[in-house]
Amino acid sequence: MGSVQQTKQAVSGKKRPAARRTRPLTKTERITKYNRIYLKYCNEMWIHCGDCGKDRRAYSYVSLREIVVPMGVFSDPSEWDLIVLLHEIGHIKTNKESMKMVVKEYLATQWMADESKKWEIPVKKLYADAFQKYIWEKRKLSIARGGKNVPSEEELAIRW
Ligand SMILES: [Zn+2]
Hints:
Blueprint: H1 2-12, H2 27-41, E1 46-50, E2 59-61, E3 66-70, H3 79-94, H4 101-118, H5 125-144
Parallel strand pairs: 1-3
Antiparallel strand pairs: 2-3
Helix pairs in contact: 2-3, 3-4, 4-5
Bound molecules: zinc ion.
Zinc ion (ZN) binds at residues 87, 91, 105, 108.
């Protein structure tokens, strides 16, 4: 029975979920991953370098399917740059115009969390907490502005 199961698994190609890695990436790994992510998505959106201000944080225009990343990032991306890139791609992959801002941020971040596992990019607790806090703040803002049917904090909790 065990062997049948194993064969079935081998055929279906199902793998156990990837364990989250915690070792920091080397510079070469960061460059390789950043460029591979770019190559995977550059045909469905426009990802290019531009002025990202003093904090050098990438941003996106979802309706234009455009992402602006910091100058020089391709030759020396940090782990933060990698997860922000995935988050911005996540906006373009998941967002619909009609969604509430808080839902857009939640979906982009959950997409990033899932993809960071596939690409074996560690997400430091500091960064994970910052994204979660950002989403919950957007939720409070939405409620303060009289938003209806705002999802609960639980519904907006990222599964890392
Ligand atoms: Zn965002």
